[in-house]
Amino acid sequence: GTYSVTVGNTYGSASANFSLSVGSGPPTISVDLSPTNLTAYAGAIETYSIHVGGSGEGLAYQWYRDGSAIAGATGSSYTFTVLGGTNTYFCAVTNDFSGGVPTDSSTGTVIGIVPPSLNPVSYSSKTKITFSGYNRTETLQDFPVLVRLGTNVSGFSYSQFASPTGGDLRFTDGSGSNEIPYEIDEWNPSGTSAIWVQVPNLSSNSVIWAYWGNASDTTPPSSTTNGAVWVPPAFQSLPSYEVVYHMEQSGFPYLDSTLQYPGNGTTAPLSAAGIVGEAGSFSGGSYLDAGNVNLGNAFTVSAWVNLAPTASNIQGVWVNGPGGYTSAEIALFINDYNTADGALLLGTGDGTSGQQPETATGMVSVGQWHLLTAVVDRPGGTTQLYVDGTLQASGAVVADFPTNTDMNLGRFNAGAFAFDGLIDEARIHSGLDDANWNWASYETVAQNSSFESYSAVGSSAVILSIQRSGNNIILSWPQGTLQSASAVNGMYGNVAGATSPYTNTVSGTKQFYRVRVQ
Fold it and tell me: By the 8 A CB rule, do 385 and 346 touch?
């Protein structure tokens, strides 16, 4: 503050003014970096930030990796690329009152998981898949997309595969080398095959690659059978699927792709053509019993259905109770009681009271495929009902319906209100799927050719082409980094700024060129 003093005697007075500044001391960490233990894929972008208290005079930050100062990392936050292996980070802060002794933040330990990778040149064929139809601003993480391979892809032929069952098929993210999980729903060498692929980040015009034609690696990756497409890595803390029935079996048990809840029962649905591969034809009381599925408090249930023209009265889809407006259960079903009105309903009850929001009538027409989805927030007491990826109704649920009892697909679990028609791709997903997720889930199946664009099949082989034009040599190559050396077996280095086509004037000593692919 500003102070003044006045001194006087018999002969007069004199005054003086002065300012006093009191520092609040050395810096203190008021908001520390978090988390102190972080696991992520190598190459991911992460940021650590801190906030300090104490005097601001002469405040200075310095970030460290593995005990060594990081050049240029002198702000209150530090954004970095995750490195493979284990590395540590912390920030040291000083000010004019610290006497040169820094105040250190906590240390963050960052573990970089190196994803499996492939060498593109090991595969004779490839196609680029661009999600040109995804036009939402939200990026969907670890989203399962449907990839169709057949005559829809220009230049595609099953003869290009080294394995008759597609064992040499691989998928990567947009880098073209980092492998991503996939699962074959149906392999159809005489038609179109259906494959589910987990896209790390689905955004507008994002890209993945498919490769095949590698005789030296025809063993399918573990993701084709271990559920990785549907269960994200634990360190990502993303919701996982609890149940995924592709319905490709023709008898019990029906496989759950998450490896948790195989479908059993007494009367199995027949096999029929589905919207993705095979579907289950439900009639005469056929159903799947998933057992006691732990739904949790926030979840999404969905299924593709095709109602038979003969369907009337309530048509049970996903149900874990006996039926009845106040029965202790959750029930996703079609048609109001004793009608064929085509409404989609979600009933919840606790044995005493119940709620039953529904869409308008006619939303689920017979003889057509529809994706039915219910997003359920149990603590919040709300649900949202989607038909074909579009929100059609919102309403209330009771807050104490059972979440860990016997779940049936195709009927109420006491045997009433059996489904009459086809069911395909029946799922239960942890978490609250939002409008973008539900829309994309519909589009990747129903509008695959517009949601995803497939490039013509090309060769993964890298050929370095050389042409002469006057006094220039023009080099061109499809991918990779151009390198040069003065001797064929010499020390090769990257040609700075070289992109294909690269023009070099004929002069000086000879040069040898090659392309490094990986």
Answer: yes
Dihedral sign from CA coordinates of 447, 450, 453, 456:
positive
Question: Which pLDDT score, from 0 to 100, does residue 21 have?
Answer: 75
CA–CA dist 202, 504 (Å, integer): 40
Q: What token pair was written down for 476? A: 């061109």
The one-letter amino acid at 304: W
Q: Are 409 and 287 in contact (CB under 8 A)?
A: yes
For residues 330 and 320, is the Cβ–Cβ distance under 8 A?
yes
What pLDDT shows up at residue 517?
Answer: 75
182-209 pLDDT, tens digit each: 999 999 999 999 999 999 999 999 999 9
DSSP symbol at 446: H
Token pair, residue 317, equals 């889809």
257-274 exposure pattern, b = at least 16 Cβ within 10 A, e = fewer: bbebbbbebebbbeebeb
Q: In one letter, which amino acid is 98?
A: S
3-state class (DSSP) for residue 435: helix
Instruction: Give yes or no for a contact between 52 and 62, defined as CB atoms under 8 angstroms apart.
Output: no
Q: pLDDT under 70 in the chain at which residues?
A: 23, 518
Polymer length in residues for the chain: 518
Q: What is the pLDDT of residue 204?
A: 94
- Cα–Cα distance list, 272 to 282, 304, 408, 415 (Å): 10, 13, 20, 23
Strand order in the sheet with 207-212: 170-172, 207-212, 125-130, 453-454
What pLDDT digit, counting tens, does each position of 107-163 carry? 999 999 988 999 988 999 999 999 999 999 999 999 999 999 999 999 999 999 999
Relative to beta strand 108-113, strand 37-41 is parallel
CA 473, distance to chain mean position in Å, is: 45
Location of structure tokens 């988390």 = 35
Tokens at 395, concatenated: 């309403």
How far apart, in whole angstroms, are the C-alpha atoms of residue 219 and residue 398? 49
Cα 508 to Cα 299, 438, 491, 501: the distances in Å are 69, 62, 18, 21
- Nearest Cα to 257, choosing from 228, 296, 219, 299? 228
Cα(201)–Cα(138) distance, rounded to whole angstroms? Answer: 10
Rounded to the nearest angstrom, the gap between the alpha carbon of residue 427 and the centroid of all alpha carbons in its chain is: 16
What is the DSSP track for 18-82?
Answer: EE------S-EEEE--S-SEEEEETT-EEEEE-EEES--TT-EEEEEETTEEPTT--SSEEEEEP
Q: Are 228 and 132 in contact (CB under 8 A)?
A: no
Q: How far apart are CA 292 and CA 134, in angstroms?
A: 36
At residue 108's C-alpha, the angle toward residues 106 and 114, to 5°, is 175
For 476-491, give the secondary structure using H, E and C.
ECCCCEEEEECCCCCC
Q: Are 336 and 356 in contact (CB under 8 A)?
A: no
